[in-house]
Amino acid sequence: MLYSSTRGNAPARSLRELLSRGTAEDGGLYVPEAWPELTSSELATLSGRAYDQIASDVLALFGGAEWQQCDFTTGIRKALAGFERNDGPPLSRLDDQMWSMELFHGPTLAFKDYALAPLAEAIDRELTITDKRATVLCATSGDTGAATANAFAGRSRANAVILFPEGRVSDVQRKQMTCLGAANVQAISVRGDFDDCQCLVKNLYQSEAAKEYSYTAVNSINLARILLQASYYIYASVKIHNDCGQPVNFAVPSGNFGNVFAGYIAKQMGAPIGKLIVTSNENDVLPRLFETGMMSKAETIPTISPSMDIQVSSNFERMLWILKGRDGNATRDMQKQLAEKSIYELSQSQHSRLTKDFDAMKCGKDDALNTMRQIHKQFGKIICPHSATGYFAADQLRATLNGPIVVAETAHPAKFPTAVEEALGTLPETPVRLEDLFAREEEFTTVDPTVEAVLSVIDGIFGTP
């Protein structure tokens, strides 16, 4: 299988090539030439397999003949060995309709571990096979940076550069990026918001120096990461569908549209999925789009759920390409309009097609805190403020949806103790993985949001290639 650019003016690439690429040469994002489909019998077979095998089988459909070279199977198994729970995300039925899917049992206690841990193994293997080195670029609103830093720490063939917005991640998230003590990981605090960090990564990747520095990206702009995340939607939907016989709806906290797009991929492959509900905080760029059909930038507002403090949802470009009939030129024009005028508008038919598969809802601070209290009172669960947006939307929409609703719990509550204390009057229990975190020394550099400033740090720490 080959992968093409959403903007239609870059060479097609293989899965193996995607491991070392973020954006395409024309600035677009890679998308598969077709969605592989799982038959009913194949889905039935998957339901009886272990999670690592399900993830391997799903990715094999996207890898074709190159599967053995990438060897994701070994990478997934090795990565999951470092999880608190390595048998897949725990699924719990809370009432007659509501389920939880806990995605925070990996090394950094967030859903990003399910993709970044095995992706790092695959990239490391590829660099070893080809006898090359790489510089991994990562823009983060918190969790991606922590997962990237942990996944690449100590690897001999890859350096990792993590860009995070100054003062806009939780203390736990920041220290997970800055306290590793790994010589090959450099955290950089950027004077700006996540969208500035994301723009820097894209500009670095498109720069003349990109080949010289051997940049690769592990944000969700890298499609290999999204494909890895699609596995847990297939895993969960098949298991719950077997229990109730109905399509499974998912409420997914989302800022950059990557995690929920992984659910969309799973649905296109034949997983028994109903609606995908996009939930956000006050930075409601996606709910506004789903309500009005207009993608419009606004100022990013700091919130109690910082991982969703995003106003430029880069991954939606893949969905836009689908809505535009896989027309690269039309997609490029819309993205150009967004960059220059901070807005574009879907046609009525495109908007209708979008809302056939998706719904969306904003959840402000008061609703999130109230939901955290409600979930704790009803089910004895302490949840993070991001997951609270999912539970809020699920509760608001449950009467309109047929079948079970699964809330993707995207992070452990201990990563956001201030919000938990404000909601419940008590701090969450500290997991073993975080017990000594605040005793460790931090190492990071703060810069202005310019390519030159970031390059200066990279050269100063790792040297000029």
Automatic annotation (TrEMBL):
Its cofactor is pyridoxal 5'-phosphate. It is an enzyme of class 4 (lyase). GO terms for molecular function: threonine synthase activity. Its EC number is 4.2.3.1. Residues 3-79 form the Threonine synthase N-terminal domain. The modification N6-(pyridoxal phosphate)lysine is found at K112. The keyword Translocase does not apply. SUPFAM superfamilies: Tryptophan synthase beta subunit-like PLP-dependent enzymes (SSF53686). GO terms for biological process: threonine biosynthetic process. CDD domains: Thr-synth_2. Residues 102-321 form the Tryptophan synthase beta chain-like PALP domain. Keywords: Lyase, Pyridoxal phosphate. Belongs to the threonine synthase family. This is Threonine synthase. It comes from Ruegeria conchae.
